[in-house]
Amino acid sequence: MTKEEELIEGLSFPAYHVTSSTIEVPAIGVPSATKQHVPISGGELTAALELDSNMPTGEA
């Protein structure tokens, strides 16, 4: 997963705002070195991580 962040100016401490998130997946039907970057929302990421954590070991 890749997150693009931007610095929030004017604070007394460094803070960042996520502007976009993408997940890297293999491109289907092309050489294995080729990847696709698919946009993903925070809600989609949370749901995917929850599903993954509930899977029995060896099924992921």
Q: Would you kindly provide a brief summary of this structure?
A:
The protein has 60 residues and is an alpha+beta fold. It contains one helix and three strands.
Characterization of the model:
With 60 residues, this protein is of the alpha+beta class. The chain has a domain at 23-60. The protein has one helix spanning 42-54, and strands spanning 2-7, 16-26, 35-39. Strands 1-2-3 form a 3-stranded antiparallel β-sheet, with no helix packed on it. The protein is flat and about 45 Å long. The relative contact order is 0.19. The mean pLDDT is 88.
Main attributes?
alpha+beta; three-stranded antiparallel beta sheet; 1 helix; 3 strands; 37% strand
**Oligomeric grouping of the chains:** single chain
Unreliable stretches (pLDDT < 50, length at least 5) are none
- For the largest beta sheet, what order do the strands appear in spatially? 1-2-3
Kindly state the mean pLDDT as a whole number?
88
* Helix content, binned percent: 10-25%
In sequence order, what are the helices and strands, one letter per element? EEEH
Per DSSP, the total helix count is 1
Span between termini? 17 Å
As a percent range, the share of strand residues is 35-45%
C-alpha Rg, in Å? 16 Å
How many strands, what sense, and barrel or not for the largest sheet?
A: 3 strands, antiparallel
Q: Shape from CA axes?
A: flat
Broad structural category: alpha+beta
- Give me the count of strands: 3
